[in-house]
Amino acid sequence: MASVYTLQPDLWHRTTSYLWIVKPQSLATSPSTGILYQQPPSSEQIAKANKVAKVKAVLKEFAAISLIGITVVSTLFTVRSCSDDADRQAVQVVKFQMEVGK
Q1: Coil, strand or helix: which one is 22?
Q2: pTM above the 0.90 mark?
Q3: Local structure of 86: helix, strand or coil
Q4: How far apart are CA 19 and CA 97, in angstroms?
């Protein structure tokens, strides 16, 4: 596809310098329009984007399930640990009362 070079005023610096803008010929209808053109994505690019989106969704679900699982397991571990401590302390109290009661 042939390109057309158009001369545009440089508005950034507000001087008399000019910028050369390269545009596809199909869009170069007027020297004053600065239209940017992008090719539509190919089917391979769309398939790759869909695959990436699916992988991200699966990873998000895995992270959410893992977070819930870790929360449940840590809660159970904490309750069991506290229960074991209470049982151990009860045994120590009974032993101490037996020693003092002699």
Answers
A1: strand
A2: no
A3: helix
A4: 95
Q: What is the pLDDT of residues 52-101, one digit of tens each?
A: 999 999 999 999 999 999 999 999 999 998 988 888 899 999 999 888 87
Nearest to 22 by CA among 9, 13, 35: 35
Length of the chain: 102
Contact 26, 4 (CB under 8 A): no
- In a 13 Å sphere around the CA of 50, the CA atoms on its Cβ side amount to 7
Secondary structure letter of residue 28 according to DSSP: -
- Name the one residue in this structure whose structure tokens are 């809660």: 75
DSSP state for residue 16 in the 8-state scheme = S
Pairing assessment for the beta strands 18-24 and 3-9 based on DSSP bridges: antiparallel
d(CA 3, CA 6): 10
Neighbouring C-beta atoms of residue 28, cutoff 10 Å: 18
